[in-house]
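Run log, item B.
One chain of 155 residues. Sequence copied directly from the ordering sheet:
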Amino acid sequence: MDTSENTYKITHYYSRNHEKYSVFVQTEINLPQFIDILGAIIFKFEELVPEQDCMDEQHLISILTKFFNVKDVTKKCQGHMKYTRIPLDQWEITNTFLISDNPTFVITQIDLYEVREFCNGIDLNEKMENLLPQSKEFELEIRRGHEFYYSRVST
């Protein structure tokens, strides 16, 4: 595991099963910028796919890996899930965890619900324009996520 990069656990406060649906990524993108990128993606998704309530974490990770040079490390980090469990009333937009079996390894949990609330502001359109790829390929990737939603309903 590359500890020179930031490791983020992406989850959603209102998820039915945090253990099952949370994902882990590694990236060189710093936390404030990553939060802005996540917020911009969420709002772009809501703009293009209004019939869905929330963006599925697997759909989000497919976009992040394809367009933002982010690595999916979910399988590698599953053993660290136990170190990132806290009561819901302690959740913030981010919570940082020092992994006790590797004291130099830090995981920052990011709550997508809080990200959406935080990014819903005056400069949202500017963030979407500046942080997101302005391409048909990106929009198609946002729209194509239907397989994530159909498989989630059946599980």
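Observations after the first pass:
- The beta strands are 6-11, 23-27, 71-72, 94-98, 106-111.
- The chain has eight helices and five strands.
Flagged for discussion on Thursday.
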